[in-house]
Structure formats: C-alpha cells, structure tokens
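Dear support,

I submitted the protein below through the web form. The confirmation email said the job was done, but the results page showed an empty box. After a refresh the structure appeared. I'm attaching both so you can tell me whether what I see now is the final result or a partial one.
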Amino acid sequence: MDITTQKRNAKQFIQNWQNRGHEKQDSQSFWLQLLRDVLGVEEPEQFIKFEKKVQLSHESFIDGYIEQTHVMIEQKGSNKDLDKPIRQSSGELLTPFQQAQRYANNLPYSERPRWIVTCNFIEFRVYDMEHPNSEPVRIELKDLEKTYYQLEFLVDKSNEHLEKEKQVSLSAGELVGKIYDELLKQYKDPDNEHSQKSINQLCVRIVFCLYAEDAGIFGKRNMFHDYLEQFDARQMRQALIKLFKVLDIKEEDRDPYLADDDPKLAEFPYVNGGMFSNEDIEIPSFTDELRSLLLSKASDEFDWSEISPTIFGAVFESTLNPETRRQGGMHYTSVENIHKVIDPLFLNDLKNELNEIKKTKQLATLKKKASKFQDKLANLTFFDPACGSGNFLTETYLQLRKLENEAIKLIYPNPSLDVGQAKDIIKVSIQQFYGIEINDFAVSVAKTALWIAESQMLEETKDIFYADWDFLPLKTYTHIHEGNALTMDWNDIIPNYACHYIMGNPPFIGGMMMSRTQKEEIKKVLGKIKGVGELDYVSGWYKKAVQYIAGTLIEVAFVSTNSICQGQQAVTLWKPLFATGIQINYAYKTFIWNSEAKEKAHVHCIIVSFSYKTRKKKILFDESGQPTVVKYINSYLMNRENIFIESRSEPLNAPHKIRFGSMPRDGGGFILNEQQKEEFISKNPLSKKFIHLYLGAVEFLHNKKRYCLWLTNITPRELQSMPLVLKRVQKVKEFRGKSKALSTRKMAATPTLFAQRAQPTSGNYIAVPKTSSQRRRYIPIGFLSSEVIASDLLFLIPNAKLYDFGILSSNMHNSWMRAVAGRLKSDYRYAKDIVYNNFPWPPATEKQKAKIEKTAQAILDARALYPDSSLADLYDPLTMPKELLKAHQDNDRTVMEAYGLPVKGTTESDAVAHLFKMYEKLTKEKN
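What the results page shows now:
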C-alpha cells in the first residue's frame, strides 16, 4: 500500500471511529479495519488472534495478539482512562498496561510480547518490552493521518529498525565528516585538485572497509581494526597503502610469502569491482588524533552494518564542502520522498502484481507465476541522469530485491532443501541500475551505496535458505558514470531501447542563479526559443529526456523546482515539449522537499511523470499528497487540456493598464528612514515637500514606514539651498557613474530623478504587491494616493475605481492568479504580463458593476474597523476578522454572478476552468 492511500485511509478510519468505542462490541472490528485499511494487511482475520487464552489463577483471555510481530493488545472502551487502575475479577486494581504485563508473564517464553499496546479507541499507548521502564509512545486517534507510520511495527518485523537505521546512518555521516576534516589537515596542498579527489576516494575506501568488517564481508569482524591497530600513527599511511593494494589482488596472484610477512594482511579477501584499483591516490600521514578517531570512534565504538545505504549515501556526500553543494544544486532526499517518485512510477504496480500472484491456489502454477515475476524484475532497467549519491537507484534496488525475496519464497517452498548457489537463485542485480553524476566523489559514494545495499539484501536472501554465500569478491559492476548529463549522449550510458524507467531529482538551480556555463548548456539543449534564459536548470533534463525516450515506452519521473510549471516557464518549457506528443501521467503539486542531510535542504518542489505512452489513469496529487484520478494534466498541473497563458504586453480586456512602480537605482541615495526624514526636515524645512512615503510590498502589507526624496520638480535654486539633499544627489550620481551597466552610467546625468518613474501625478491608484504569502486566500490590494511613491516591488493601476478593486479582490481573480502566477519559494509572485494582462474580465452589466462597487466598498469599510492592524494581520487566515471575511465572501458572490457562474457548488477548479474558456475565446477574437 502506498503512502498516499495509507493517509487517505487513516483519515477515513478517524472519521469512522470518532465518538465510538464499546469494548465488547467494537474491539475486533476496530483492529481488523486498522490492520486492513491503514496498515495494508490483506487478510487481517488470519493475522491477528482475538481472545487468546492465558492461564492465571483462573482462565483469562488476551484481547488481541499478533504472533508474527510479537504484539499484545489490551483494549478498553472509550470511557476508560488508560492511566487509571481498573478492578479485576480477582479484586486487584490494575492499569491496562499492568493487566497486559500480567498476561505476558504467564505466557511461554517464546510467546511473550516484544510490544504491548493499550488502547481505548481514543489513544494508543505503545510499550517497548525491551525497555519496560521507558515512557510509552502515545498516538492519538485524531492524529492518525499524520502518525499512522508509528503503528507499522504491528505488521512489519523490520519496522523497529527503521528509526535506528536512520539514526545510525546520520551518525555515520557525522563520523565521516570528522575523519574527512582531520585528513584534510594532513594534506600538503589541500586545495590541489588531485588532493581533493584523493581525499574523497580515501574516505570511500575507509567507509567500505569499516562497513565490510562489521557486516562480516571480510570474513570475520574487526579485521580492518585489528590490522591497523598494529601500527602507530607514523606507520598508518604505509599500512593503508599496502592494504588497498592487497584488496585489489586475487589471492592466487598475491606474493606467496605474504602470510609469513604479514599474516593479518594476508587474511583480507580480494574485493574486485575497481574500488581499490587506483594506486595513484594521495594518502597523507596520520596523527595520533586521527588514528584514535579511526580506530576508536569509527571502528571500536560504531557498528556500520546497520546503516541504511539510501540515507547514508546522502549524509556521506554531505562531507563535501557546502559551497560545492550549492553550486551544483545538489539536495539530498528522504526515503519517503523517493517513494513519492518510485511508488506511482512502477513500484505500486509491481506490488499489486505480486499480491495477485500470491492468491494463486495451485502450487505448480504459483511457482511458475512467481518465477516469471522474478524474471520480470531482473529485466527491468532504471536510469537516473543526475544520480548524486545514488539515493533513487539504491532505494529502488532495495525494493526490487525485497519483492524478489518474496517471489523466491513462493518459488522455493522448501528453502533448506532447495538451497543452491546465490548466482542461480538471485536474479535482480545492481547492474540493472544506471546513473550519470558530474561530481566524482558522488559517483564513488553511489557505487559504494549500491554495493552496501547488495550486501545487505544478500544477507536477507541467505536467511531464507540458511545459506553461507560469500559476498566477496564483488561480482557485479555498477553503471554509475561521471560526466555532465546535459552534454552527454544518454544512449552511450544505456541505449534507449534497453531502458524502462528514468527518475531522479536534477539540480535545483533557478534561472537567475545559474552560472554562465550552465546558461549556455541550457541554451544548447533547448535551442533558440523565446524566454530560454529564464528557465530553471532542471529544464535541460526534461528536454534531454523527451529526446531520449522518443519512439519508446520509457516512463520518466523527475522532482523539480515548482517554477517550471508556473508563470512564463509553464509556456516556455512545456509548449515545445507537448508538441512532441508526450503526456503527463502523474504529478505532485507543490510540496516541501526535505532531505536527510545534516544541513537540510527545504525546497518547494513538484514531481512530474511523463512519457509518449498514455496511461489509462492519470493521477494528480494535491499539496497534501491526496491523489485524484483525472482526465488531463496540463503544464500548470491542472485537470485541464493543454492551454498556455503567454506573456502579453497589453491587457486582454481589462479597463485599465497596470505597470511597475518606480525604480530608484540610486545606491540608497534617495531612501530615508523615519529618523533621517526628521533630520532632513529639522535642518531644512523646505525639504519636507520633496519627502514622500515610499512603499514596496513589505511596507505596504506590514504598515512599515519608509521615505524617499522625490525630486521631479525641484529647481536648481531649491536643491542648492538644501545641503543634505544635495549630498544625497551627489551620492546617486557617483553610484550610477561607477556602474558596469552603460544604461545606468547614462542616468548619472540626471541624478535627481529615479531611474524609472511610473508614479501617477494626481488622484489615487490601486497598489498590488509583487509577492504575497500563499497562506492568504486573497492578495491584499488597496488604494494609495499619488503622493505615496510605489517602488518597483508594487504594481500600480492608475485611475482605477471601486469596480476594479472589487474584481481584483475577488476569488475569481485570485483563483486565476494561483493557477498561472509564478512562485517565489511558495509565495505568490504576481506578474503583470502573465496574470493581469491575461485575466479575462467579466461582461458585467451596469447593474452588476454597481453591486460590485458596493461590495468592494464594504471590504474597505471592514478594514477600516481595525485601523491598528496591517494588511498582513487582516489577511492572515488565523486572524482575519469575521467582518472582513464576510465582506469578501459577499464580493465573491457578486463577481461570480457577473461571470454567469452559480454561487452554490462552484469550486475554485470550476472558476479557473471558466476563466480558461473565456481566455481561449478572447485570444481567438484578438487574433
């Protein structure tokens, strides 16, 4: 069961069981529904036992018992407090937990629970019996939609290790960071490129050895530690050089006298796989501190066998310089987020297929189907053209091998009798996984993560057969290639006819943040299309993927910055891509992409999956991860046919034009704070008439005061009489004169004027902030006097009236804005050429216009009731006054009537659909 389905089912479970809970009547149905619908147990009646007998001084019964995961359940009614003692039939007073403990103590040792769960339909208490005195985990029914995963220990034997595995991996990453820092101090020239590559490779080798000794890969534990312990700090460098050389030589090709010279070194097996083949890496001298860190902290005191290769790959890579990470746009991915990509791409279908196979009754047919399924798994190929530390590939390999192990159990019902060689039984291989990564260190990490994953999954298969297969020498080679994916032919890595799935999260770099080289790469990949310079870096991967998958059934899923499906980028990128015939099959709308790295990356992302093959069911996941089956997914990730809202310099049918506010380009020369304003006026009262309130989006929304010198009509005599003002003008002139931009240097000739002036000379205007929080239902707009100077972070609409204010304040306009505007992180980024100029105004009658003017005035009146509150305060959904909310709702209804839409039953999606139809009609009429 995928995460989205679990969350949806958990939500339904909460609704089903709120205000219910009779101990005798409801207990069994409560637990059966929880196991089946939320935790994915297909036949929960076979999984959990109710009323299990236990012999006390009298015969008693355990409410629920799960043998497979060693869980005991003590269920009480919703009217019972789990903390309060309840009188037993024997007369004793026991809490539910004490009652369960008594049952546990009277069970045979083999049946005693690892976990005790007490529940009263309102709350679960989870007690870990390995730590019986610790506080229980408390899970409330009302929170189950968010916390359901905490109950997965009920059905998954391995679940108890997940959090530990994560913590071990994070701690391992910290250790690697310390080793890296200490090693770096010992290099003669740490900034040298060869030294930097060497230290990266050295860290990879050390980690592999630490893991190999703890996981038993070297044959016995502590081999690496015991070998190095013979040497003092001065000898460690040579000891490592000798070890790495031996690990790369087959036993039969080694010096026959090695065992006599150094018996501990001779015990190491041949590794293969190329990890130790480069003898040219620079290894520095060791200090006593570095020796102690490696032998004590990293080897003696730490168990590397329990790391998660998926998570560890990320934290291992975080030993890179943070600046390097930012320049490369690398972000490290949580396992949960990886599954948002791979589950709907292929994993859910594979799990469903295996579940159907398990239902087969006839043994011979079951084995045949399972064998065919295993062959299918072994023939799938996966490609990540920006693989970083290999998280996507590693997690996919682990999931495929887990499915294969399930299939193996069906193929070999008598594993102890059927045992053979690993190569004959295991078919899924890390050689099915291909990647491109520009950073050499990340390439090494990705290869190592895959080898560690292969080792761990071999152990799980060995457990099925009670086999004793050796992991070394490495028999498989990884297809992780170092290079720039935007300049390489992907067919050189894996021919497109041999590939099934492409996935990953290419670098998150916005158009404004790219280097000159990266901009040139994008232009070369996408060609000479209008607006290519504004596209995010990830756009190059989309174009390369579309070219690569042409004529195939390959499906692609990329994590991307959300801006590629917003504003102008939704046109610039997607219009030519859709023209090739691709379709979006599933997509996640904007969500925060968290990482497992110590320095977490919080990026607002989307997931887009596309192919030339059309899926029968397209799925659109909303911001909370809830899926909806839809007919279409367009470039704005909406359930609409493809339509592109292109940049327009003039309004489509708006009654007034919109423009940017004024831009000073002054080096701060024109701008004053409150104290500076008072100083200017006190020293020269004449300056008062030239000082105006100066507002950008922040000042406008938060009632912050800022001022500017607005000198458009100043005379030379007036300027000469105000030394402070004259000094500021001189500052502007000097700033502009030193600019690298020719246009700015030319403006030095007019140092009394703003670089760009858009201010109305009379009357009022409507101000629209350029950015606004996504938390707000309505972008706060307002009327300002022409005496108030609008900065370029405000849009202004001169001569606008109440009617215009009512339309632009409505849910119709705000719904349109949410659909087509760009984002700054997650905040709305209003754009005149995309949002305003393309917005279809209603064909309102004079009577409807009068009604809208009335409701618009009511919004302003409601605001006036709270003069001490800023627009940010008034439009925060938590603090929005009821009078203001009602005024907006009345305005919404009036505007909807002008559009001819029914007030009842019209959703935001309906409103946007209506506006898109109007847009199409109006643009056709314009053309």
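Response: this is the final, complete result; the empty box was a page-load delay. The chain is about 45% helix and 15% strand.
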